Amino acid sequence: MAKKREALDDRLKEKIAEALENLEYGSVHIVVHDSQVVQIERTEKYRLPSEKAEAKNMPIRAGK
């Protein structure tokens, strides 16, 4: 029974690592019921550069 539990623990660690892989912004939620992990949720957010920030860095041109 111990080997089966170790295999389950290894699989769980692998799934958590997969959920975290390449995650820049977001979260990983691990849902537990009766001391057992029953679900792993990954929420990923993409951050886009704001246009104002880009416009602020552009050089100002003198009038013609």
Low-pLDDT segments, ≥5 res: none
Structurally, the number of domains stands at 1
Q: Could you describe the largest sheet, including whether it forms a barrel?
A: 2 strands, antiparallel
Percent strand: 25-35%
Q: How many beta strands in the DSSP annotation?
A: 2
Number of distinct helices: 2
Report the span from N to C terminus: 82 Å
Overall mean confidence score, pLDDT: 85
Secondary structure category: alpha+beta
Query: What would the principal axes of the Cα set say about the shape?
Result: rod-shaped
SSE pattern, N- to C-terminal: HEEH
Helix content: 25-40%
Rg result:
22 Å
Strand order, biggest sheet? 1-2
SSE topology sketch:
Blueprint: H1 2-20, E1 26-33, E2 36-44, H2 51-56
Antiparallel strand pairs: 1-2
Q: What does this molecule look like?
A:
The chain is an alpha+beta fold. It has one domain (2-56). The protein is 39% helix and 27% strand. The chain is built from two helices and two strands. It has a two-stranded antiparallel ribbon with strand order 1-2. It is rod-shaped and about 80 Å long.
